[in-house]
Amino acid sequence: MDDILLLEAIERYLGGDMDATERNYFETLRKNTPEIDQMVVEHSMFLHQMDIYSVHRNLKLSLQAAHSKLVERGEINEGGELTPKGRVIQLWNKYKKVVAIAASVGGVIALVISGLAIYFSPVVNGNQIQQLSKAIEVIQRNQQYQGKLINEVKSKIPENAKLISGGSGFLIDPKGFIITNAHVLKGSGAVVVNNKGEEFNAVIAHIDLDKDLAILRIDDQDYTPLASLPYSIRKNNTELGEQIFTLGYPRNDIVYGEGYLSARTGYNSDSLSYQVQISANPGNSGGPVFNNNGEVIGILSTRQAEAEGVAFAVKSKNIYTLVDELAKNDSSIEKIKLPLHSSLKGMDRRKQITSVENCVFYVKAFNK
Amino acid sequence: MKADTNEQALLKGLANNDSKAIDTIYKDNFNMVQAFILHNNGSYDDARDVFQEAMIALYEKAQSESFVLTCQIKTYVYSICRRLWLKRLQQMGRYSNQVDNLDETVPVEEDLEMHEKRNAEFAIMDSAMGSLGEPCKSLLEGYYIKKMGMQELAAEFGYTNADNAKNQKYKCLMRLKKLFFSKYNIGE
Fold this sequence. Notes:
The complex is a heterodimer of chains A (368) and B (188).
Chain A: H1 2-14, H2 20-32, H3 34-73, H4 83-120, H5 126-140, E1 143-145, E2 162-173, E3 177-180, E4 189-193, E5 199-208, E6 213-218, E7 232-233, E8 243-248, E9 255-263, E10 273-277, E11 288-291, E12 295-304, E13 310-315, H6 317-329, H7 349-357, E14 360-367
Parallel strand pairs in A: 7-12
Antiparallel strand pairs in A: 1-12, 2-3, 2-14, 3-6, 4-5, 4-14, 5-6, 8-9, 8-11, 9-10, 10-13, 11-12, 12-13
Helix pairs in contact in A: 1-3, 2-3
Chain B: H1 5-15, H2 19-39, H3 44-63, H4 73-91, H5 109-130, H6 136-145, H7 150-157, H8 162-187
Helix pairs in contact in B: 1-2, 1-3, 2-3, 2-4, 3-4, 5-8, 6-8, 7-8
């Protein structure tokens, strides 16, 4: 009973419910009796905890109330009311990885089966066969080399040699270094012919099959080196839409063609080359691709067989790499100085062609 | 970002247990948290638990004297929920890497520590209350939580007068204190 009275007193004291005299009396009591003092401290702490507890409980109730109210109003969505949808979303979230894997496995199997079906299916009608064969052709021969057979044999080509392919090439150093496509040089030797029909013997100085580029060196006393080259060779990439022109030998006479740069990469996103929109024919391989300023931006090399006017040019910066490779591999060869300045800037196209013409050669490869 | 005046008003409302403010904060933030938790291996119930816990943490923060919220309520609530949920996932041993780190969050570790301490105290009091038995429990709840007067309580519980009710209340209170401090001290 005493304890209860004491507790009541403490609670009244802490709650500020005591009047002045009672309060004074209690405070002296507290001062003189450590046990009572201790009880006061403890109880004050307990009441504080009780306060927090009650506030939390009330808050939790309010939150629950708010939650049900909002769900009822439809302002928040919960599983309960929308069971089917909620469940589906939960299941989806839980299993979406599995579903994705299953789907891709399914997709792969479907592709394999349809591939096998096409492969093994019997010949039913002509139309289908043609489509199929065309598809195979797309895979196997999407790119058609623009070399061409040459029948005529004359002068500097050894007598019993057989010409096997031809293409174009152009000077990268007036001393007589010509760049062309590696695939043009299929035979064992080559001659180059200038725009006036003069032939010169040439040897392969360097060939890089990966880049599909080769450097020929004119090895002929009849050749008189030019003073300088009118064009330069661009080191940087070129932007889309750049107007371009080319010169080459799809026939015995030099042929001009123009177009524009249509993609920054070549066939199958090959980053070594550009896609260009230009009319290119067998024989154009190895020909220079100039921009309006008379800079060489590429070497015309291949075209897409099934698309009209789509051709690919090896980027001109590869010439620099090739020349470096050559210098590294063969120190006996004179150093090639690539032309860095174009004197064709701002010139009329016809004048540009006239200046460039005699630097573009017809490359003929033969087998002895 | 400094919480704007509208948000300040909401927090003030929350601190005063104003149901309108609670509803507004609840409505504005719950769906975001629910989406997060559902997306990360949780259920609707988990979402509600975690969100309400974050609301309590926000409330505690709003109540503290040194209260400054230096970001938007949304960011704060999200940060708290995120931490809480990741912790729970870890405890359940199904931590997922799915949780993306791209969201804006604020450091809430200190606040959460505080909150957890409070939570522990709350749990002690709750279990002490729970093991008290009737009518003590209801009597004390009536007095300390529902803040009912002794007169009222006497009437409700059928005591002949307020003094008897008060006497009973103190008896109960002594038992509760005993229960509470036995665990609280251990907890310390």
